[in-house]
């Protein structure tokens, strides 16, 4: 078996509620977005995985709703998400009758209340959060 370091990077632990340090929301900086394909009961399944500057040893796996939120807030080019501030929050929901709480990308309308104010950039360049 040939070892590939990138394959092991994908196996990083996922963000948990404990990573929020008791906070309900947090602003984080995206350092990478990659598409991971894994075996889902015999079928290949693609998922986007984000890494953050604040959590170098953990990743965040995105579902369809979270990808939609990111596209609304930052555009659909994932390479352009790198370096951007992302709003994450504690999220409660129900799936197949089971209630859960987890770390979640906040809905775009909540970003203004979570992220720090935008810093002005050099003339002619768009501002980044």
Describe this structure as you would to a colleague.
By secondary structure, this protein is of the alpha+beta class. The chain has one domain. It has 3 helices and 6 strands. The protein has helices at residues 5-9, 64-74, 108-114; strands at residues 13-14, 25-40, 43-52, 55-61, 85-95, 98-105. It has a 6-stranded mixed β-sheet with strand order 1-4-3-2-5-6. A hairpin with a 2-residue loop joins strand 3 and strand 4 (55-61). The radius of gyration is 16 Å and the shape is globular. It starts with a helix and ends in a 15-residue tail after the last helix.
Q: What is the oligomeric state here?
A: single chain
Proportion in helices: 10-25%
The SS-based structural class is: alpha+beta
The residue ranges in which pLDDT falls below 50 over 5 or more consecutive positions are 1-5, 121-125
Mean residue pLDDT = 85
For the biggest β-sheet, the strand order reads 1-4-3-2-5-6
Separation, N- and C-terminal Cα atoms: 43 Å
Helices, by number, come to 3
What is the number of domains? 1
Strand content: 35-45%
Number of strands: 6
Task: Note the run of SSEs as H and E.
Answer: HEEEEHEEH
**Largest sheet at a glance?**
6 strands, mixed
Rounded Rg? 16 Å
Question: How would you sum up the global shape?
Answer: globular
SSE diagram, text form:
Elements: H1 5-9, E1 13-14, E2 25-40, E3 43-52, E4 55-61, H2 64-74, E5 85-95, E6 98-105, H3 108-114
Parallel strand pairs: 1-4
Antiparallel strand pairs: 2-3, 2-5, 3-4, 5-6
């Amino acid at each position: 078996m040939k070892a590939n370091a990138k394959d092991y990077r994908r196996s990083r632990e996922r963000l948990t509620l404990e990573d929020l340090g008791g906070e309900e929301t947090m602003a984080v900086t995206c350092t990478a977005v990659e598409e991971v394909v894994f075996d889902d009961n015999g079928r290949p399944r693609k998922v986007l995985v984000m890494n953050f500057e604040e959590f170098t040893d953990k990743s965040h796996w995105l579902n369809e709703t979270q990808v939609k939120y990111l596209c609304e807030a930052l555009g659909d080019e994932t390479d352009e998400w790198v370096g951007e501030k992302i709003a994450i929050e504690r999220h409660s929901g129900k799936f197949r009758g089971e209630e859960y709480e987890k770390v979640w990308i906040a809905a775009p309308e909540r970003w203004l209340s979570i992220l720090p104010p935008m810093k002005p950039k050099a003339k002619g360049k768009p501002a980044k959060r």
